[in-house]
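It is worth pausing here to work through a concrete case rather than discussing structure prediction in the abstract. The textbook approach is simple: state the sequence, then state the predicted structure, then interpret. We follow exactly that order.
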Amino acid sequence: MPHFQKIPNQFAVADRQAQEFCLGFEGDCLSSIMDVNPISTFVINTDHHVVVWNRACEILTGVQREKALNHPVDSRIFYSGQYRPLLVDLVLDRDESAMRRWYDNKNLSQSTNIPEAYEASDELVIQGEKRNLYFVAATIRDATGKIVGAMETIQDITDRSQLLNQLYQAQKMEALGALIAGVAHEINNPINLIMYNIPLLEKIWQDVLPVLNDQAVLSPHRKYGGLRTDFINNHLMQLISDMDMA
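Step two, the predicted structure:
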């Protein structure tokens, strides 16, 4: 009889060992998948301790996986000298009021693609370099629907932001050139110019003046609408003022 009583126990032990093996295998597999992911990604458990810190995250932050695992994320990595909650912490806690308090001025929005996910962006100094970062944080649920942790991805969009800014500045310079050409062409017939162009010209002029001054240093002989940069600087606002008074 005692012999038969051991059999269920042996099955229970074997089943537990099989589950532990599968969990270990799945953990190793998940870690491998995360490491080939080029987007910086980390996962925290319900205690807010890091359980996954991928290779891209190591490269972005300079913090090795061994140092990050089993500890809360050190917010000073991203926010120099500041102890504060990260987006992933607030998403895990489902604390929307704290999210608004900490991230409302960081382009915070609820994701339209991922349930229970929030996204934001910020300009931060990491490893001594200023970077524009876009991050998304979402809760993680198990098969029963229970929250078991949260994940955050971080994308460095610095180059993209710089390109967009350069494009924006180029568009403003193009608009300025077109309006200055209009000034030169319509100088003998200012009525239409006053009615249609002056408010826009004044606004664009205030926007592009710093850019124009920078361009003057780089290309002092460049012309806009056939006019030199120094002439525009010295006479355009006076010309606008004279036309407005007329």
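Step three, interpretation. The longest helix spans residues 2-36. Confidence is low (pLDDT under 50) at residues 1-8, 17-25.
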